[in-house]
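Hello,

Our lab assistant flagged a job as stuck in the queue for most of the afternoon. It eventually completed. Since we weren't sure the result was trustworthy after the delay, we are filing this so someone can double-check. Below is the sequence as submitted and the structure that was eventually returned. Let us know if re-running is recommended.
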Amino acid sequence: MDYIAEEENGYRYFKNVNGVDYILQYRPTDLLVKQEMGEKVNKELVDSLRDKYGKYLYFNLSMSLNNQELLTNVANDKAKFGQMVNDLAFGMEEKVHLITPVKDTIAMTDFIYPRMYGMSNSTTIMLVYPNDKKMFDQDYLNFTIQDLGFYTGEVTIKINPKKIKNQPTLNF
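-- returned structure --
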């Protein structure tokens, strides 16, 4: 986990735009396998879980303003709060995009937004994309986040697909 969290290793990206902190972190397959498997290690289970999680790419997108969840910063405006809850819970596939250099958009498979009700210092969403092998032939991919109402404009994070292709593995 420490290796993945260090930006220089190419799995974690940070950007600050107009006071909003964006952290995009790739979640390697074996990390997800380890989380689900826990202490019960056997080769068949490892292979099964690697197959299950290896079909997709998982990213955590964390966003914060003033070291708080985004919703905390719009709590005084009922209409804005309601719209943001709706966007975060149901509309992220329209707000977040993974795009190749030739402008092909990779369709999001799913996303998970757990409400933390002010108990976290950031809004974190897990984003799931298909593990499309042709993505890895690209020099880079653009991960874009539309403005969520904080006057950031569209935020683009350039990611290296070769790092994902050569992701670290764990010895089980």
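-- support follow-up --
The delay was a queue issue, not a problem with the job. The result is valid. The beta strands are 12-17, 20-27, 56-65, 96-99, 105-106, 110-112, 123-130, 141-145, 155-159. The first strand starts at residue 12 and ends at 17.
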